[in-house]
Amino acid sequence: MAENADEILRVEDLHVAVGQSKSGTAGEILRGVSLSIETGSMTGLVGESGSGKSMTARAVMRQLPSNVTVTHGRVMLNQRDLLELPVDLMRTIRGAQIAMVFQNPKTALHPMLSVERQMGEVAKSHSDVGGSERGDLVREYLELCGIPDSARVARAYPHELSGGLAQRVVIAMALLPRPELLIADEPTTSLDATVQRQILELIRDLQQRLHLSVLMITHDLGIVAHFCDRAVVMSRGLVVEQGSRDQILTEPSADYTKRLVAASRLETLEEEPRQPTPQMP
Question: Which value, in Å, is the radius of gyration of the alpha carbons in the chain?
Fold first, then answer.
């Protein structure tokens, strides 16, 4: 792939294998994945379960399971290869420059710590904000994510939060270090349909207001149609197609993408008018 100054992330010929060393190809689960994320855009990484979407994200974050290895390729963030960085430096970049939101918000929150305590630890790790100011910063980011009663929520523990409210907290915590790239790994899977739409609207609104770059991992082409600018289609560990949202959904070139679009039975490819992000009680 040619370098592009407008790209924040570029993955080049990424190979990932289970139980492998740097040599050999047996057990490959990602086979030459190449994709790019444009600065300030929302890109949908779409495909069926098992296509390699989440594994690609975990490789970018350098958070692969212990028995899974990157055997070849580069992951370029702002033209710097993350795979070549020392562990300590990558730990700093993870959170400060790249943040991730997972499927189940309750598993991302420590059950024994209040929201304010958990978000305060993030602020302590990634900023020079003093202890007396961290509470204000936590409430500011909770309100940014559509939580009006921020003081009450800051005092709450994860078991006291609804699924949608917990996901808003997780998004607020991910954004607190002001990352450039947010990876959302099917962030609405565990939520009901109404709350799913609210969370997706929130992420899109934040992406535009903060000029974030977002990689939205999903199996749902409807999400790509309504929320994403670009799309990357994966199947069986391969990227089969990528391009603008409209090109992927109206003029797909790969047979797999054509079947995916046909199976989705999208009622419309036009984005619905956006309403202000609903406030969660």
Answer: 19
- Please name the residues in contact with 142: beta carbons below 8 A apart, sequence gap of 6 or more: 115, 119, 150, 153, 154, 168, 169, 172
Residue 233 DSSP code: E
Long-range Cβ pairs for the range 248-252 (8 Å, 24+): 248/224, 249/221, 249/224, 249/225
What are the pLDDT digits (tens) for 102-129? 888 888 899 999 999 999 988 888 777 7
Domain boundaries, the chain: 105-178
Mean pLDDT of 136-165: 95
SS3 assignment, position 1:
coil
Residue 71: strand, helix, or coil: strand
50: pLDDT strictly greater than 60: yes
Encode pLDDT of 92-104 as tens digits. Answer: 999 889 999 988 8
Residue 232, beta-bridge partner list: 45, 242
Predicted TM-score (pTM) of the model is 0.88
